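One such given next:
>
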Amino acid sequence: MVRCRNSYNRRVGAPGRILAIDYGSRRMGLAVTDPLGITAQGIETLQRKNNRADFGRLERTIREYEVKEIVLGNPLRMSGQEGTQSKKVAEFAEELRKRFHLPVHLWDERLTSAEANRLLRENEVSLKKRTEAVDRMAAVLILQSFMQSRSVT
């Protein structure tokens, strides 16, 4: 059987999860839904290296979790306008679409890092561990917000 390198979950009704990415220049926090799409769980914080390594790790994650779509945190300004970082995120989203042939949704992530820090601080997570966990927690918050918006409609 010949498989296209980028043919992820092409079958109708194929099991799959949603992958959320909290994109940053040094790190990317990752979270996925459970197989039924009910809960969100943080899976790792990817330390950025270079495009080849970063996309390789994302490809392994997409295959491992049978991801069917991606939600990418969009860091809009408080006014709702795009800034420099949100333009970088839009370019990254387009690259994800080209490489993986999956739907990629940009999702407003304003204040998710602040909320993640607050939650970790309230749970008395040490500063060192908080630094390691904040991007992953932000990805979980992005994914929960995205999933909640779908359940309301």
